[in-house]
């Protein structure tokens, strides 16, 4: 008489069973925090370009926008799915069709990349992805600091000037108003805040909502706002604009300690490449 069947190991997949990697196109962005972060970063570059009437593109493998001709960080491109080494040449060819050779672009990948220098890119680092879970409240504004959400074209122009001068972005000077922050951007899921010191505009931050996360972007402060709490006030406003959603950002190593004081936690490091203008 035959004995009982051999027990199957619980870690063995059933025949035909698909084991998710977390990056399948049919999975929701809410599957993981990292996927939410990728989705909102991919949405951001497209939203900025669209608001300016500039070309953008979203594919299953990457997303980006052609925002302008100058500025190393002006034209963001995000890899949105794991790529085989042989796929990068094709993807970079597609990106080159969006961002012309006269302009640089900034490519960020959440995934390890092969050496892309043969394609004219320069690796500029592995910045940390940082996440802040919902909850908590912003600290009180310091004496002399005011905060305003941008709601009109004139104030948006002021915010744009603070961004370009405070980041700083010298290659965009003299600034052509509306070259980075255009009024249609405020018609979507992007919000912008200005912080003032003694009544003078001194810091800026933006929040973009997509993919179940809040992306904190365009954080900059003029010298008049540094050390006075203006930059922190604008950043807190962007971070907490949707209190039920996590906030995400890609920080520099220099900026990481500041975000950690706000409750952001480094989750992993992404890879950043620059394709200079040619």
Automatic annotation (TrEMBL):
Domain N-acetyltransferase per the UniProt entry, residue ranges: 145-278
Family matches, as InterPro entries: Acyl_CoA_acyltransferase, GNAT_dom
Segments for region (Disordered): 1-28
SUPFAM superfamilies (alphabetical): Acyl-CoA N-acyltransferases (Nat) (SSF55729)
PROSITE patterns linked: GNAT
Full protein name: N-acetyltransferase domain-containing protein
Organism: Nocardioides marmoribigeumensis
Lineage: Bacteria, Bacillati, Actinomycetota, Actinomycetes, Propionibacteriales
């Amino acid at each position: 008489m035959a004995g009982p069947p051999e027990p199957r190991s619980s870690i063995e997949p059933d025949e035909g069973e698909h084991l998710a990697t977390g990056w399948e196109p049919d999975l929701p962005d809410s599957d993981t925090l990292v996927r939410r972060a990728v989705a909102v970063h991919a949405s951001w570059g497209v939203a900025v370009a669209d608001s300016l009437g500039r070309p953008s593109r979203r594919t299953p493998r990457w997303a980006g926008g052609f925002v302008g001709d100058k500025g190393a960080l002006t034209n963001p491109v995000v890899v949105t799915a794991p790529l085989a080494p042989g796929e990068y040449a094709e993807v970079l060819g597609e990106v080159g069709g969006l961002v012309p050779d006269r302009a640089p672009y900034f490519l960020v990948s959440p995934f390890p990349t092969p050496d892309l220098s043969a394609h004219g890119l320069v690796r500029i680092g592995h910045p940390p992805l940082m996440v802040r879970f919902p909850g908590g409240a912003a600290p009180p504004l310091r004496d002399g600091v005011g905060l305003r959400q941008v709601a009109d074209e004139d104030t948006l122009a002021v915010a744009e000037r603070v961004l370009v001068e405070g980041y700083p972005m010298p290659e965009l000077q003299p600034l052509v108003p509306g070259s980075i922050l255009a009024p249609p951007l405020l018609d979507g899921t992007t919000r912008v805040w200005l912080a003032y010191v003694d009544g003078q505009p001194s810091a800026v931050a933006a929040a973009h909502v997509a993919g179940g996360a809040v992306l904190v972007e365009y954080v900059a402060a003029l010298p008049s706002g540094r050390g006075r709490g203006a930059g922190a006030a604008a950043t807190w406003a962007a971070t907490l604009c949707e209190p039920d959603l996590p906030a995400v950002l890609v920080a520099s190593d220099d900026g990481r300690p500041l975000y950690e004081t706000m409750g952001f936690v480094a989750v992993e490091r992404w890879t950043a490449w620059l394709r200079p203008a040619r």
